[in-house]
Amino acid sequence: GALLVNERIDREELCGALSPCSLSFEIVVENPLELYSGTVEIQDINDNDPVFPSSQARLEISESVAAGARFPLESAQDPDVGINSLQTYQLSANPNFALDVQTRVDGSKYAELVLEKELDREEQRELNLVLTALDGGSPPRSAHVQIHIDVVDANDNAPVFNQSTYKASVRENTPSGTLVARISAYDLDDGPNGDIVYSFSSHTPAKVRELFALDSATGELRVKGQLDYEETKLYEIYLQAKDKGAVPGVAHCKVLVEVVDVNDNAPEVTVTSVYSPVPEDAAPGTVVALLSVTDLDSHDNGLVNYVNDNAPKPSQESYDVYVLENNVPGIPILNVSATDPDLGRNAHLSYTLLQGDPSSGHLFSINRENGTLYLLTSLDHEDQVEFSMMVQVQDGGFPPLATNVSVSVFVTDLNDNAPMVLYPHPNTTATYTDVVAPGTPAGHMVTKVVAVDADAGYNAWISYTLLQATDPSLFSVGLHNGEIFTARQLREDDAPEHTLVILLKDHGEPVLSTSATISISVAEMVKEVLTDLTDVAPANDPRRHVTFYLILAVILVSAAFFITMLSVGIFKCYKWRQSKELYNSSRSTTYRTPGPFHHIDAVRGGFTPPSFYHQVYLTTDSRQSDLLCKKPFTSSPLGSRQGTIRNGEPGLYHQIVGTASRLPTPAE
């Protein structure tokens, strides 16, 4: 039972930086049959010196750097572990710098130069220091590196990171090129002194540089190599930002990258002992073989179960179902089928509907036992054309295995919507009148019928035909665009008013249709149809008396203004005569002129509608005053022609000179 060493053991070759380093073995004891596990721990001895990446290090430090600034130094590497690994650093004596030894999360050491006394380039242009790395062995082993520091004139402002520590987590199977973190620094300087270049700090291990890449311009840290949770769970990455000045300013930050375990290791089955042949009279329960299963993953990913190794396999990975709109609720539209090669409970399948679209939750249901998908309500193609969902097929094993199947339901269109007229609007009592001048030649477009159909495809294709007209030979309508043209030149004996009824039909099955009525007036000038437009206005239109109210308001305001001006004239005549009498009698008096300006807000009576506002601006020394009438603009549904006519109604603006007032003509 003695355990012997067959060859020389090198702990660093076997385990690298892992501690403790152990080798496992198993022992089988027979009669009775038992299985024992054993572990040999390989202890470390101090047989390796610390090693720096290079024998010399060069730093450029600005003389403007304040005391307390830190400068990371290249770390030494010692493959030994525990007390035999790298323990501390020492710096040669100097008046300006001190050494600060820091400990990483994994316990490794690194050193930073700390400026205790500000540098003066005029006093000393360069410094030479010696950095010594010591391990904890007895006696300790050491390594040295020469540090040459150039003191130069520097940038006034160094880059500054927006945070000193960044944290990120990535899965161990993350592909190369995936963004891990984006560091950001700013520099208050201008030009090259403010341009920032990102890079790894000098003491970043080579292994980290192999696994991660840093964009020097954007500061994006991306995966470069293959991460392995089982090898390293956390990376502590030190980065720096430099500007492009003659003496670049430097800022440092730290990125902590946590590696998240994924189930990337399959269980390994080891057959420890096999008994063969087996006697034909072997009793039930006789041991035939001993199996051991291990999994390198962690937590749940490393748990191993024996049983249910086949997931349900659907007959199709996805289904496309087409349903006519206006369907009968409750109809089955699809049967999802799947198989499972396992036995018993592991092969019992159940079907669950995973909601895709939020709107599909109350529209569909599935039979849990046989996978039949039902449509619970009537669908409308104009409301929604497509529904997407997932059906999960799960077996009865423990833990259960499941497979998802994609289902897309497309609603096909039926011709259930008639064309809808947008112009002329069908839901108004006003008549849409278009005007065409006498003598208009053939081919002149008078107006256009605008319509839409809520259906899709061929069902929404609208055709326009002239159903009825006062003179069918005078106008024609475009079959597909609804444009109304003159079919011939207008003559003097043509009727002055024409009514057209346009029939709009779609091309569905069955055909659905609607109609639109167009009124066309033949007139030389727009003012000739003004009376007609007024006649066709609805009887309950409150705007039909607007012109009357405006004329009445102008007359009343003019009368008030006349009375006011007459009163002012009498008053000024009285003052003139009084002044003349005083002058003739040689009596001195002080003549006081009235104020230069008076603002009178008048004519706000109840005889005008509340939407009108009248102001009279009067002066005691001027013969001219202005009357301003304001009216809010009201859009007209009859289009641009009628809007132009109605906006020209009297009362928009009147100017009164002296006591005379003038009313605008209808054309104005």
UniProtKB/TrEMBL annotation:
Q: Please state every residue range assigned to the domain named Cadherin.
A: 1-52, 53-161, 162-269, 315-421, 428-540
Bilayer topology annotation: Single-pass type I membrane protein
Which Gene3D superfamilies does the record associate with it? Answer: Cadherins (2.60.40.60)
**What domain of life does the native source organism fall in?**
Eukaryota
- Pfam families membership: Cadherin (PF00028), Cadherin_2 (PF08266), Cadherin_C_2 (PF16492)
Tell me where it resides: Cell membrane
Enumerate the UniProt keywords alphabetically: Calcium, Cell adhesion, Cell membrane, Glycoprotein, Membrane, Repeat, Signal, Transmembrane, Transmembrane helix
Q: Which GO terms describe its cellular component?
A: plasma membrane
GO MF terms held by the record: calcium ion binding
**Any transmembrane segments, and where?**
548-571
Example GO BP: homophilic cell adhesion via plasma membrane adhesion molecules
- Classification via PANTHER family: CADHERIN-87A, PROTOCADHERIN GAMMA-C3
Query: What protein is this chain from?
Result: PCDGK protein
What phylogenetic lineage does the species belong to?
Eukaryota, Metazoa, Chordata, Craniata, Vertebrata
